[in-house]
User: Fold Blue (Type 1) copper domain protein from Thermobaculum terrenum.
Amino acid sequence: MKTWIKPLIALLILLLVAMPSKVSATTNTTHKVEVDDNYFEPKTITIRVGDTVEWENEGQNPHTVTADDGSFDSGNLNSGDSFSHTFTKAGKYAYYCKYHGAAGGVGMAGTVVVMSGPAQTGAGGMANHESLLPILLLVVGVVILYLGLRFKYNRIS
Ligand SMILES: [Cu+2]
Assistant:
């Protein structure tokens, strides 16, 4: 009895430790911003860290999506073209169209507000604990069973 229980416990503990930190609740979403002649709709969009913004030129004229701080630039977007950027840091990102606007919110311009995601990481952490709990209970159960059997075995011998 002892011989197979020990490796089993070792395996279960290994499983518990090696368990990948699970899909960290990848609720990252893609937000669409319409590029039109000559404005962005919505002008200001609020997203979370890790989210992506996709701009699509639904107008007739060419436009650009150019960050004031240079952190992203679509280059020329003809009618029907689109451009995506994923925001990995919280902050306020002002952008403009090179043809119809300028840095500082002049003319054809917009803003992406990126919030740090406490709700996101919180949900992820909870999911991790929920998925680990049954395994933890199983390990504890096996250990108790093992100790019980060993106690009984020792008393007999
Ligand atoms: Cu434009």
